[in-house]
Amino acid sequence: MSGEGNEPQAIRKLQPGKLVIASHNAGKVREIAALLEGRGLDVISAGDLDLPEPEETGTTFVMNAELKARAAADLSGLPALADDSGLCVDALGGDPGIFSARWGGENKDFNHAMGLVEDKLAAQPDAPRDAHFVCALALAWPDGHVEWFEGRVDGTLVWPPRGTKGHGYDPVFLPIGYDITFGEMDEPAKNEISHRGDAFRQMVAAVF
Ligand SMILES: O=c1nc[nH]c2c1ncn2[C@H]1C[C@H](O)[C@@H](COP(=O)(O)OP(=O)(O)OP(=O)(O)O)O1
Ligand SMILES: [Mg+2]
Asked: What is the CATH number of domain 17-207?
């Protein structure tokens, strides 16, 4: 008999049709839509559907991505893709991490958030400025099935912030091997190396 639990579960394929992008962050929605282009998907954002922004009560990126994807799939009756991501700074023990959006405060002010990181690092002038971005993607179906993927990009932090092209903490993040920040990089170039691009390539290989 099959299904005894020892064989790996097959990954569920995503069929052409409607897909909800379960994010209220315009910068992320823009990048995700570009990464999904040309795959026969009719992409709708959580904002288009007026879906509420769920409280992110998880303790990991994957837990929060799953919570957001499930909420959107349940409410819309459609497959939903969520992204939970953040900046992890080595010298700050991985902060802001899953709290990256919350460090922007009620106004989602990332100049403020980048300033907080700078202030906390100022207390450790000799510590390395190593940091990485993480992106967890969760793809949830209305019947409760979920697939997860996690991507990462390593870099160092620089001040003052540079560039106006990205979003969030992009202006202070210098990816390894580059001399421009994510804030100075065109979106296709960022997607080639970013945490989000990394997670997407894994997802695309698995579900298409
Ligand atoms: O490529 C990125 N470049 C710069 N900053 C980034 C990036 N990716 C994540 N980040 C930072 C800012 C963002 O606000 C937070 C994610 O927090 P996170 O909860 O996943 O997203 P969010 O609250 O902004 O939108 P939503 O939860 O509706 O998808 O990490
Ligand atoms: Mg969020």
From this structure: 3.90.950.10
